UniProtKB/TrEMBL annotation:
Domain of life: Bacteria
UniProt domain Dienelactone hydrolase: residue ranges: 30-230
Record Gene3D superfamilies: alpha/beta hydrolase
Organism in which the protein naturally occurs: Ruania alba
Name this polypeptide is given: Carboxymethylenebutenolidase
Molecular-function annotations in GO: hydrolase activity
Length: 232
């Protein structure tokens, strides 16, 4: 993954200006992808994946959803601290700020094509929730940790969607993954649901604590192909 980083723009919210990391594709314009963070914030990993998307031709925004929390620093493999920070941020505040960032990306002059949501773990559930409110052209959710509690929204998530889960996920057990699969595919005939044998939770994160090399590579290629098919 590339770690190239472009710049930061600010988006006004009811809690002050929210920093939003922005990457532009080589051509300067393109379809837009809003990337929503794991519990570790807009980490080196999230920035690297965002840069990968920009290199693939997308305008990418990644909002700092923890901007409301003083001293929200967290190491990228400190699970307890990440859970603590996520718990300090009311879900509705995160959802409101994600929506604000999506609206800013929608209005950005650099965005000349479609619009997608892509979320990892915490952000995977947040993206699903946001997609039910403000439908994008496409949704990609990596092991959305909040999805078990959001399935009542499934009938509202009607755009093409792609869901990734590992079969060895201990945070979202197999029976919950099957419940999620049934709900999202029953409500949406265009939903794609893919599981990866032996991969645990956060398998795309390159930290040795989480990473599953084969699942990560396969899921990312599926993600790029999915975005290309639905955003151009």
């Amino acid at each position: 993954m590339s770690a190239t980083h472009a710049d930061i723009v600010t988006v006004p919210t009811d809690a002050g200006d929210m920093p939003v990391h922005r990457w532009l594709p080589p051509g300067g314009t393109g379809s837009g992808v809003l990337v929503l963070q794991e519990i570790f914030g807009v980490s080196t990993y999230i920035r690297a994946r965002s840069a990968d998307l920009a290199e693939a031709g997308y305008v990418v925004y990644a909002p700092e959803l923890y901007h409301r929390i003083p001293d929200a620093s967290v190491d990228e493999d400190d699970v307890d601290r990440g859970i603590e920070l996520a718990g300090q941020l009311p879900w509705e505040h995160a959802l409101t700020d994600a929506r604000t960032a999506l609206e800013a990306l929608h209005a950005a002059q650099e965005r000349t094509g479609g619009l997608a949501l892509l979320g990892f773990c915490y952000g995977g559930g947040l993206a699903f929730n946001l997609a039910a409110q403000v439908p994008p052209d496409a949704l990609v959710s990596y092991y959305g940790s909040a999805l078990p509690g959001l399935l009542a929204l499934a009938p509202e998530v009607t755009m093409p969607s792609l869901h990734h889960f590992g079969t060895a996920d201990t945070f979202v057990p197999a029976e919950q993954i099957e419940t999620i699969r049934q709900a999202v595919t029953a409500a949406n005939s265009s939903a794609e649901f893919v599981t990866y044998d032996g991969a645990g939770h956060a398998f795309d994160n390159p930290s040795p604590l989480f990473h599953h090399e084969q699942a990560s590579a396969e899921a990312w290629q599926r993600t790029l192909a999915f975005l290309a098919a639905h955003l151009g």
